[in-house]
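User: Can you write out an input/output pair for a complex, sequences first and structure second?

Assistant: Here is one pair. Inputs:
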Amino acid sequence: MNDTDAMRRLAAANPVPSPLPPGSSQAQFCLRTVLAQPVPRKSRRRAHRLIPAAAALVLIAAGGAFVTITRRAPTPPPRATVAAPPAVLAAAADRAGQPSGKGQFLHVRGTSARVMHIDDASGYNLIRVDDVRGMQPADGRPGEGWLIIGDEGSSVRPVTDRDAASWRRDGSPGPGKQPDTVSPNLADDPEFDGDVASLPDAAEVPVADREGWLFRECTRLLDVFTNTLSGADRATLFRTLAGLHGIRTLDAATDPAGRPATGLAYTGETPRYGLVDWQIYLLAGTDQIGFSQAVVRRPGPANATLAPGTVQYSLAVLDTRRSQTP
Amino acid sequence: MEEQFTAMFREHYPLVLAFVSRRTDQARAHDVVAEAFTVAWRHFERLPDEPLPWLYRVARNCLANAVRADRRQTRVAEKIAGHGLEPEPDHALSVITDTGLRQALHGLAPGDREALLLVGWEGLDNQAAATVLGCSVVAFKVRLHRARRRLARLLALADSSPVEDVPMARKVRSA
């Protein structure tokens, strides 16, 4: 491989290949906040130059008073504001209820990542990343879809330096057998497979963490890799989410892939994986969950070797396309 | 002046946000970009005609400050917890899915890696990239030439021992 090929390969791996679209509400907020800072004085530099040397010496002799007087108090950097989850979800419900694009089939491409624990002598953790492609009949049309995981590429990498050392000692094994699902059921949730209109209220859900179950089931049903729902059903799911307690908006204004998005999260206890933060990112101006992930807040028996903050699994929707052919 | 700044902001905000997003997590990227443009606003009169390399440089410094602050907090947390915490991985490397490339970049010195990323990801020419790194154009050219050759060599090494497609015989518990 020559260095031109190497640079081409580097460019192809750019995680944010094109500039993020301007004009987002986040950009507007940033601009307003910056302009609200003290206005720079046009004549300041010139005025400093015009100060006679003698006057400057006097000021310096006065115990550094000049420096003290003109130093501006440090201004904390502006931070992002966040919208309330019900407002975000209600807006998504409105968009879901609007007519969608043409094309009977929805083709989706993305990546799925998950932590795997290898039970060798020392025990270590790897992050497995799989390319995912799927097709579903669009807008709740009848018919079957397909889902292919890892067919176009899979890779593994150690989670920590310690895992890397154990992995190398183990012969640096590769991804191995492909997983069956894009989103593992960490909370051992009973799966809802009925009509969305008959989704139970939180009070009727037969699990301990009812709000958590509804958050996970609604977001699972909104996943475009595995489900085909009409706009009306999607709107119902978003409205159900909007009525839940315990959801919070994340500070980040983009998803982990760098796209403008609003992040929502619910933190819940699971029997095997400890305390988990379930996060979804709604792409800006759409009703599409572009990214979802489960972040470990406090590990449990099944992931005891993971540090808090580790992403247990994630699913990114990188491209959706409608067509007339499956 | 506000109109001029607004025009400059609208032109460069997406590029600076993309630049920072390639180097840190999203939670931090927006704060860093806002801080960089706040600095630009304070020094607007002194901004060069082509402000993008200058903005990249300021954003890079803001990011370095944020990372340093985080490390200080981590050290305090370590003392409180009484045991070592895992160091934060290099974000730019962690988001690359090409395993061989990630391995190869990991083997480069941080300065060489940044030179490659400024050209390969940001698409800067030597002059602009040198401004971002605060070095002369000649020094940058030398660094880039060296880094390109090292990357090619390390990529060839990484590809000769790929991690993919090696059967995993161990028992795997998938999360």
